[in-house]
Amino acid sequence: MSSLMVDFIVSLDGYGAAEGWPGFWGMEGPEYLAWLEEDSRNAYTTLMGAKTYRLMSGFAEQMPDDPGMALLAASPKVVFSSTLEEPLSWSHSEVNREEPVAAVREMKRRDESPLRTLGSVSLCRSLIAGGVVDRFRVVVFPVVTGATGRDRIFDGYPDLALDMVEHRTFDGGIQLLDYVPRVLDGPPGTGD
Questions:
Q1: What string of DSSP letters covers 147-171?
Q2: Cis before 181 (ω within 30)
Q3: What is the pLDDT of residues 32-86, one digit of tens each?
Q4: pLDDT at res. 33
Q5: Low-confidence spans in the chain with pLDDT less than 50
Q6: Euclidean distance between CA atoms 150 and 145, whole angstroms
Q7: What is the pLDDT of residue 40?
Q8: Rounded CA gap, 92 and 87, in Å?
Q9: Strand 174-183 relative to strand 160-170, pairing
Q10: Which ranges of the chain would DSSP assign to H, the alpha helix?
Q11: What is the pTM of this model?
């Protein structure tokens, strides 16, 4: 049986990107990049939506010699989409038109290799709400992008309790926070 990890990189104020800022908000350091490269060697099947697929396959095409992109290109990818047509141009990618929660539940039952998401805010939101996420990992960069931030990650999420299973600091400021999520019916103490 497999497991699913939702994986986000965010600013301290919860944005996934910011207008005019470079990738990793320009704050990636050698310690974080080494960990990221090591983590990308894990045998994940990566889940994403069509928008993230288009963005990441474009990056992979522009940077074929980048070690991280090469590893991602070589790994299996499942794209949940009603608009993309097969065959997809990015190697090892397949389209899944099924309802994501039911499809992931079946993938977890059937497959051995672990699953993880890449970007895909709305897909992750539905998987969390559907109760199929086993791990919730967030890497927080020490910036606030209130004026330029876009793509607020957690808007529209259900209420969650997060039980920490790992944490780490990279390069003196980047925080890795790894949790087991539990969807709540409401704020603690309000249930029967």
A1: TTEEEESSTTPPPEEEEEEEEEEET
A2: no
A3: 989 988 888 788 999 999 999 998 898 888 888 877 778 888 899 999 999 999 9
A4: 87
A5: 192
A6: 8
A7: 80
A8: 10
A9: antiparallel
A10: 30-40, 50-62, 67-74, 100-110, 121-129
A11: 0.89
| Token code pair at residue 59 | 């990056």
Residues 73, 27: Cα–Cα separation, whole Å: 25
Q: How far apart are CA 149 and CA 21, in angstroms?
A: 9
Task: With H, G, I as helix, E, B as strand and everything else as coil, classify residue 45.
Answer: strand
Domain 4-183, what fold? Answer: Dihydrofolate Reductase, subunit A (3.40.430)
Give 137's strand partners: 7, 178
| Token pair 């897909």 in the structure block, residue | 123
Those residues whose C-beta lies under 8 Å from the C-beta of residue 82, and which sit 6 or more positions away, are 97
CA distances from 83 to 49, 104, 109 (A): 10, 19, 27
The strand pair at 149-152 and 15-18 is best described as antiparallel
For 6, the token pair is 């939702």
